[in-house]
Specification:
The protein has eleven helices and eight strands. The protein is of the alpha+beta class and 264 residues long. Helix 1 runs antiparallel to helix 7, helix 2 runs antiparallel to helix 5 and helix 5 crosses helix 6.
Length: 264
């Protein structure tokens, strides 16, 4: 996913490793395995400074020399005669790098583990890989739920589930719980790739907060599994993945896979 995003935005090769490395600390700042003794707040500040520094360098480059990429589109965009400020673009850049990479990466990791644990579902998918892939992707995303929680602020007084919510209240949504709701999904604890309809809320549930990159994520997940399952037909996860510490990203820190190398 990060390579796709870097290509779209126009991030130079010399910055790509740095951006990929720093994006780990969006949620991993609480994980001692990543921090390696560093102060959490100082490490987060370093990440923010680094990512915004790359963004501002790229913004300046595209203002002086436009290219065929997303960053050029952002610096040239006008809304009611006004252009985005460098800080506006830099903030969007940081959001795109962090949210657009880790969520898709985690969905792929959890999906590979699920296909190993549910071989019957994998066999069903392989019977018609292209035709069944769209349904499979939605179920993999539901199963993975890469963003477990999110907080919103109530815009007005309302009632939800018999509970009164006052304007300005902070509300925490547990996507990981919603995507396992037995009132919505039959046997949610099972991976059922043919599940339809699949009313998961992994992309935010619709409305103005619906994930901007939902369609890109779907295409990336589909492309990855299409390549993995055809080029490495016996690939499977060995053992249990090592999960990250945190309550935001559903992070796989490391996972071992076994496969027979492709003949060339």
């Amino acid at each position: 996913p990060m390579h796709n995003i870097c290509d779209m935005v126009g991030i130079p090769q010399q910055h790509r490793h740095t951006i990929a490395y720093e994006s780990q600390f969006a949620d991993g700042w609480r994980d001692p395995r990543l921090l390696q003794g560093a102060n959490p707040l100082e490490r987060v500040f370093q990440t923010v400074t680094t990512v915004h520094g790359v963004a501002h360098e790229l913004i300046a480059a595209r203002r002086s020399k436009p290219e065929d990429d997303l960053m050029t589109s952002l610096v040239q965009a006008e809304i009611d005669g006004e252009r985005l400020t460098d800080d506006d673009i830099s903030s969007f850049f940081a959001l795109l790098i962090i949210a657009g990479n880790d969520t898709t990466r985690q969905s792929i990791s959890h999906g590979m583990k699920a296909l190993t644990d549910f071989p019957d579902q994998r066999a069903w998918l392989m019977e018609d890989l292209d035709g069944r892939m769209p349904l499979a992707v939605e179920e993999i995303i539901r199963w993975a739920t890469p963003i477990m929680t999110f907080r919103r602020t109530a815009a007005h007084d309302t009632e939800l589930g018999g509970h009164h919510i006052t304007e300005g209240d902070k509300v925490i949504m547990f996507y990981s719980s919603a995507n396992m709701d037995t009132e919505v999904f039959d046997h949610p604890e099972q991976l059922i790739l043919s599940r339809s309809p699949n009313k998961h809320v992994a992309f935010g549930g619709g409305g103005i907060h619906h994930c901007l990159g939902a369609q890109l994520a779907r295409r990336q997940i589909a492309a990855t599994f299409r390549e993995l399952l055809t080029r490495l037909p016996d690939i499977r996860v060995v053992g249990e993945p090592e999960l990250g510490n945190g309550n935001f990203f559903h992070t796989v820190m490391s996972m071992t896979a076994q496969f027979t190398p492709e003949q060339r």
